[in-house]
What does this fold into?
Amino acid sequence: PFFEMSKEVERLYGGDIATLIELNGQPALRRYEEQALNAICKSHRSAVIAASGAIVADAALFDQLLRSAHTIWLQASPEDHMGRVIEQGDLRPMGNSRNAMDDLRAILASRAADYSRADATLDTSAQVFGQTLDRLEEIARTLLT
It folds into this structure.
């Protein structure tokens, strides 16, 4: 089965992540992510879990993910990343900041060491979806054999 961590958090919380963060802060989001990851790992011997890049903000939770699963980090250039986030209609991370791109570059750079701990990395920049999917399947097969 496929699980998107943000959807699992929203299901457990009973509302959207923006409201969760606004009312309860980032620590509450991390607690819900931990509950979701624990539930998935407990109820499924194998699964595909899509976690947000911010999961590295909680070292213990990220360590748990690394121990519990094969991890493939999907990375993109800051420009591609920003474009994709905007296409999805999610402006929370950057709001209306004039320095949004600089902020994003700084965030990605600060997380690079954690991201590099994944079993594999796939750069999705300048690739069409089909190419990315083919390469992702190839990497996953390699990790599972």
Q: What stands out?
A: Residues 10 and 82 are 23 Å apart (CA to CA). Residues 1-69 form a domain with the Rossmann fold fold (CATH 3.40.50.300). The chain has two domains: 1-69, 71-145. The first strand starts at residue 2 and ends at 4.
